[in-house]
Amino acid sequence: MCGLAGIKRMGIDPITPEEIKILLCSLEHRGSHATGIAIENNGEIAVLKKDVPAWSFTASEACAAFLRDFLHEDTNTVLLHTRAATKGVPYKNDNNHPIFRDNVAIVHNGGIRNDDTLFKDMSLERNCETDSDIIRGILDSNGLTHKGVRELNKMQGSAAIAAVKTGEPGSLFLARSGNPIILGSTETKFYWASELSAI
Predict the structure, then answer these.
(1) Cα dist. 43→56, 105, 142, 143 in Å?
(2) Is the Cβ–Cβ distance between 91 and 40 less than 8 Å?
(3) What 3-state DSSP class applies to 123?
(4) Superfamily of domain 3-198 in the CATH hierarchy
(5) For residue range 159-170, what is the model confidence (pLDDT) as tens digits?
(6) How many Å apart are CA 138 and CA 122, to the nearest integer?
(7) Mean pLDDT of the chain
(8) Domain map of the chain by residue range?
């Protein structure tokens, strides 16, 4: 069980560091093996992740510096993740979320049983050891499109997914099958999380 959350700005109010830290720490009980953030600014994506629990991650100078450097008043979207490791050891940081290589950054809660088969059948290149990487591979290859959704439907298992794409400012992909995503909004922001209490 992992925790995912995020914020999309829909008005003039900026996303704040406090919102990010509260969401991450409120989901730490869902996964304390690793914590990560992806920030999308005008179609560019920056990622910070580490194999520590959310309380330690959010209190670190690395997190503070990352937020100073990449969280701006006009930041579009933030993806958040707390990891309970299953496939892929957390001390190899590539295995932690958000998973990002070429075009798409993803966070995932759930388990994909046929990821090895899909990588082979779809001729996709693996970026890390996790089952979640098949989501990144499919969306990197097909984009946040109807075809991408059709290809994701070939997965066997459970998933709650959030993704953003380079070159597509403000893009956001949310999907679920068997795992929760709770949605909430104000007049200026859209929130999602694995649990209502986080929002």
Answers:
(1) 29, 11, 17, 13
(2) no
(3) coil
(4) Aminohydrolase, N-terminal nucleophile (Ntn) domain (3.60.20.10)
(5) 999 999 999 998
(6) 8
(7) 96
(8) 3-198
